[in-house]
Amino acid sequence: MRQAALEALSESNAKISAKTESRVRQLLQDDPWTFVRVGAASAMASRPAATPGDEALMAALDDESPLVREAALRSIGKRRSTAAAELVHDLADNPRQPQRVRVAAIAVLGALCQVEAAPLLVKLALRAGYAQLPYDQPLGLAALAALGDIKPPDLTQRLAPLLSKNKVVPRLIRAIARDVIASPGTCNNADRQ
Q1: Residue % of the chain over a pLDDT of 70
Q2: How does DSSP classify residue 172?
Q3: Are 183 and 168 in contact (CB under 8 A)?
Q4: Domain spans of the chain?
Q5: For residue 182, what are the CA distances in angstroms to 33, 42, 76, 179?
Q6: Homologous superfamily of 15-112 in CATH?
Q7: CA angle 186, 142, 100 (to 5 degrees)
Q8: CB atoms within 10 A of CB 51
């Protein structure tokens, strides 16, 4: 029942009362069922960024379940909750986090237009072209997408190692890097943090 109600809230654009939003935050924090906490985090995505909701989502980044952390990250990105940027950066850079959590955190850095995250994103993006571990390519592709959103001014120079026609960088990665550089990006100067 709670899950169905949370799914309905997630899919609705209708305004909800402060009491309902408070209850969703409580479910996110306290419910013993992972799927309910995931639903609560997802339900908060359509709400505007505001301190109580942002704080609840930031607290959920410490949840024991990676599914809850991932849902909280996606909601932070959709809400454009810049207050969470430092925590999101830490998750993206934490090798002890599951790959799915790191990929979500990397995507959120792009959604939040975090120019300060460019060094981390470039480091991860380069790993897509020079993959040594199974998670290098998924993290690198997510980082390329985030860099495409942010579009730091020196992106061509930073991604130059992926553009070189050596035999190590896969052609697909080279093509994606070229597309990222050529794309206009989604962040404007006012959005950049």
Answers
A1: 90
A2: H
A3: no
A4: 15-112, 116-185
A5: 44, 32, 27, 5
A6: Leucine-rich Repeat Variant (1.25.10.10)
A7: 125
A8: 9
